[in-house]
Amino acid sequence: MNQINPGLPNGLWPDEANPRWLNKGDNGWELTSAAMVGLQSVPGLVILYGSMVKKKWAVNSAFMALYAFASVLICWVLWAYRMSFGSKMIPILGKPNQALAEVFLLAQYQAENYIPTADYVFYQFAFAAITVILLAGSLLGRMNFYAWMLFVPLWVTLSYTVGAYTIWGPGFLRDYIIDYAGGYVIHLSSGVAGFTAAYWVGPRHSHDRQHFPPNNIINMLGGAGFLWMGWTGFNGGSPLAANRITSLAVLNTHICTATSLLVWLSLDMAVYLKSSVIGAVQGMITGLVCITPGAGIVDSWAAIIMGILSGSIPWFTMMVLHKKSAFFQRVDDTLGVFHTHAVAGLLGGLLSGLFANPELLKMFYPTCSHGPGFIYGVLNGDFKRGLHQMGFQVIGALFITVWNVVVTSLICILISRIIDLRMDEDDLEIGDDAAHGEEAYALWGDGERDPPPLRFRMTPRIPSFCRRPYTNQ
């Protein structure tokens, strides 16, 4: 008999680290996906933001991303995860509670999944963190860092959790909205909230707004590369398993992104007669965002169409409409997050309702009754369900938009009563050195005097004992 547990024969003590329900392949893939999504933020967006802004804002921009990543994790495990995916408190929000107990984290995450709950907690944290960091792209170059420190936990608690609960959690839109990996929950919300917060914070210094060149385009491409390749986990991890939907989602992600980049680049060349590196990065981002809500539930031919539209429609809103619209000109959206995330996220959500394949929907949503994409509804004689699904996609977009405008405004107003949202004018002229007492590069910074001429710096110093004594004659 087993001396440790007399009820078990010798040699059959159960391996508590590997229970029967655990699938090591799914578990390994989910942990890898979560790590890839985390790498999109740290170092991906840290490098992208720190390189894409003017030199004097490199430290501040990168630090905003780094702080948000750490802050969101603590909020997430202490209360926000349960508010997003826990038991109901109100129809749009779960009860706040911690997600730290081993009994909870090591248990199986839902009967149809074969991973520990800890995987899902970390994966969803990476989603929450990147949402806030994307939002920060609208505020770079002028937001008071201490106001940002208050904004991050408040926004995650009062805004992000509501979107996650209503569409992905047990909320009232869960069984109706198609949002495979966050076109609405992440991108539409970050784009709308970023634009709203930019309105309340106010514009950059006038000189910065007119002249804001990136300080390191090569590093910017490195950060963009982390973002693109990390999206393999972003969309590949959503099925919570290493299955066929995962494979299709990963392929569709890269097809749409490459198409979008090429379309944006072609439009830049046709209109401005130059191939812009920054434009190519923007086209890459809009492709990644657009495919996200439908990556695993649309066919690959649809991914190409989505890439064509995500490379052209956000290009038009950013490069044409933005410059002609007084409304857009009033708000200083530093990196154009509204266009690259809100417009592209909305476009992806609507196109997912248009192109969703009913067979793929059954594989990804086995317990829900989502209607087919409108095109498949027409082709299969199920016109009403396809039309209803398009209607639900519109309703979901309206809910996320209105909630983020209202709540983000209230958060900004509240913080403004405590501390200034925007740095003062003198500090805006200086940048990083005023905000943090640090600079990104060991070079002469903006606004500093040139070093003394070389002939003066190389003059040998005369030892004190060789100098003539001073006499007042």
Chain-wise SSE layout:
Layout: H1 24-52, H2 58-85, E1 88-90, E2 93-94, H3 102-105, H4 117-136, H5 145-167, H6 183-201, H7 206-210, H8 217-236, H9 244-272, H10 277-291, H11 300-324, H12 326-330, H13 337-355, H14 358-364, H15 374-379, H16 383-416, H17 425-430, H18 432-436, H19 454-457
Antiparallel strand pairs: 1-2
Helix pairs in contact: 1-2, 1-4, 1-8, 2-4, 2-5, 4-6, 5-6, 5-16, 6-13, 6-16, 8-9, 8-10, 9-10, 9-11, 10-11, 10-13, 11-13, 13-16
What is this entry, summarized?
Its main location: membrane. This is Ammonium transporter. With 473 residues, the chain is mostly helical.
**What is the CATH C-level name?**
Mainly Alpha
For the biggest sheet, the summary is:
2 strands, antiparallel
What is the name of the CATH architecture?
Orthogonal Bundle
Q: Encode the helix/strand succession as letters.
A: HHEEHHHHHHHHHHHHHHHHH
Radius of gyration: 26 Å
Secondary structure tally, helices: 19
Low-confidence stretches: 1-13, 454-473
For this structure, the CATH topology is Ammonium transporter fold
Distance between the termini: 110 Å
How many beta-strand runs?
Answer: 2
Global morphology: globular
* Structural class by secondary-structure content: mainly alpha
Spatial strand order of the main sheet: 1-2
Fraction in beta strands: under 5%
